[in-house]
């Protein structure tokens, strides 16, 4: 008899990825009426309020002093860096373009996890990860007229990928100690004073005004992309099998491109399809090679106990894009 647990894990993971897949298109909608600084900071403030409420209701134990420093790294990547950089990038770059460039994130996360964990993956991992990065840069250049024609928006997107990868890698390790959604929530709370200050400054400099569609897109970014989506995603990872569920995120750029075409009317060009396919295949191959190397070295069983008696598995691919 086939257990329902793996199926449930995949379904919850797919639900989380589906929620995150709207982030890039909705950010593109939001920047049409709101400043990118306001979008990137205010969405984090909204999510931080929800996170503080969830932490208080469930009476979560405060992190230790050293854990706060690591939470600062997580927050710097996924709460501050990724939202702000993508918001500024998508003021000029199409949503489908951003989705393809960001598709390299799983491979970037695996690379940062390797460096952070002092792992020694096969040479094939570095080769595939490198090809994926080159493919992403080649795609970005080709869309603007040829190789060497990268724009500031591309540099911002690549910066967002690096920031998120660092945050994910550190968050994956920290989640073993304080819990998965708790890590994201504490990072949001920790960064909330800075993001609140940026929100106020952006509102004073450029008072936020927009259409109902603009505010609806912003509300989605704050409620779902920055917070609620993580609950479905992490629940799926917890149900497992984690190695399989984590790779569901490779579907995300495909969904984002589809939403950009359906909701924003962006054309799906041959360059977008081929570029996205190559980047996604390289990202998936890099993740699989790393997982295969870990399976060989790691003994079976790998559940770790967290304070309070709850068990959690090591996070292989900590989270989807902080979409």
Question: Can you describe this structure?
Answer:
This protein is mostly helical and 323 residues long. The chain has helices at 4-20, 23-30, 36-57, 65-89, 95-102, 105-116, 123-143, 152-178, 180-205, 212-239, 242-245, 252-264, 270-297, and strands at residues 304-305, 311-312. Helix 2 (23-30) packs across helix 5 (95-102), helix 4 (65-89) packs antiparallel against helix 8 and helix 9 (180-205) packs antiparallel against helix 10 (212-239). The radius of gyration is 19 Å and the shape is globular. It starts with a helix and ends in an 11-residue tail after the last strand. 51% of the residues are buried.
Helix/strand/pairing category: mainly alpha
* Poorly predicted residue ranges: 300-322
Number of strands: 2
Multimer state: single chain
Spatial order of the strands forming the largest sheet: 1-2
Biggest sheet overview: 2 strands, antiparallel
Work out the helicity level.
over 70%
The helix/strand order is HHHHHHHHHHHHHEE
The shape is globular
Distance between the termini: 36 Å
Beta-strand percentage? Answer: under 5%
Please write out the topology.
Layout: H1 4-20, H2 23-30, H3 36-57, H4 65-89, H5 95-102, H6 105-116, H7 123-143, H8 152-178, H9 180-205, H10 212-239, H11 242-245, H12 252-264, H13 270-297, E1 304-305, E2 311-312
Antiparallel strand pairs: 1-2
Helix pairs in contact: 1-10, 2-5, 2-10, 2-12, 3-4, 3-9, 3-10, 4-8, 4-9, 5-7, 5-12, 5-13, 6-8, 6-13, 7-13, 8-9, 9-10
List keywords for this structure.
323 residues, mainly alpha, 13 helices, globular, disordered C terminus
């Amino acid at each position: 008899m086939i257990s329902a647990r793996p199926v449930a894990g995949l379904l919850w993971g797919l639900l989380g990825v589906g929620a995150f897949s709207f982030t890039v298109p909705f950010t593109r909608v939001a920047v049409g009426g709101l400043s990118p600084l306001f979008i990137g900071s205010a969405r984090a403030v909204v999510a931080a309020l929800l996170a503080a409420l969830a932490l208080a209701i469930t009476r979560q134990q405060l992190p230790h002093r050293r854990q706060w420093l690591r939470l600062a790294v997580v927050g710097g990547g996924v709460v501050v860096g990724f939202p702000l950089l993508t918001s500024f990038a998508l003021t000029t770059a199409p949503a489908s373009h951003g989705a393809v460039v960001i598709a390299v994130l799983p491979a970037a996360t695996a690379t940062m996890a390797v460096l952070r964990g002092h792992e020694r993956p096969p040479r094939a991992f570095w080769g595939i990860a490198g090809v994926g990065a080159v493919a992403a840069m080649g795609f970005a250049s080709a869309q603007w007229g040829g190789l060497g024609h990268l724009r500031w928006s591309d540099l911002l997107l690549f910066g967002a990928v690096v920031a998120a990868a660092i945050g994910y890698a550190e968050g994956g390790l920290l989640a073993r100690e304080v819990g998965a959604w708790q890590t994201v929530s504490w990072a949001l709370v920790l960064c909330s004073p800075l993001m609140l200050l940026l929100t106020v400054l952006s509102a004073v400099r450029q008072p936020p005004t927009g259409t109902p569609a603009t505010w609806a897109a912003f509300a989605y970014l704050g409620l779902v992309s920055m917070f609620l989506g993580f609950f479905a995603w992490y629940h799926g990872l917890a149900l497992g099998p984690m190695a399989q569920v984590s790779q569901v995120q490779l579907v995300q750029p495909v969904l984002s491109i589809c939403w950009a075409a359906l909701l924003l009317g962006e054309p799906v060009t041959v360059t977008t399809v081929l570029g996205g396919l190559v980047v996604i295949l390289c990202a998936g191959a890099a993740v699989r090679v790393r997982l295969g190397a870990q399976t060989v070295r790691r003994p079976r069983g790998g559940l770790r106990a967290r304070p309070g008696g709850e068990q959690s598995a090591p996070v292989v691919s900590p989270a989807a894009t902080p979409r």
